[in-house]
Amino acid sequence: MSGQRRAWKVLGAKRRESNIEQLQLDLAAFNRCIEVLEKAHANPHDVEVLTSHALTIAEQIDEVRWSNPAQALGWLFEQSRKVAESDH
Predict the structure, then answer these.
(1) Please, are residues 13 and 37 in contact by the beta-carbon 8 Å criterion?
(2) Is 0.90 topped by the overall pTM?
(3) Full domain range(s) for residue 62
(4) pLDDT tens by residue, 26-78
(5) CA distances in angstroms from 1 to 4, 7, 12, 49, 86, listed in the order given
(6) CA–CA dist 46, 48 (Å, integer)
(7) In terms of domain of life, where is this protein from (predicted)?
């Protein structure tokens, strides 16, 4: 039975990563739509609605990422390392 639990945890971890990746793709798509609407001087209410949805997706990304604090800290260290390397 413990083997089944381990398999579930591994699958759960992969699902979380793919979920974050999908959410990031969705967020990027919303941001592109917002940019196009702003450049086209579209109805401000439409831009506001899309912005609200984009913020909700960003919150979902944070919730998934921070559901495992140790993994989230690893991600933060990775990002800071990348920034430090790009500065040199």
Answers:
(1) no
(2) no
(3) 2-87
(4) 999 999 999 999 999 999 999 999 999 999 999 999 898 888 888 878 888 88
(5) 5, 10, 17, 47, 46
(6) 5
(7) Bacteria
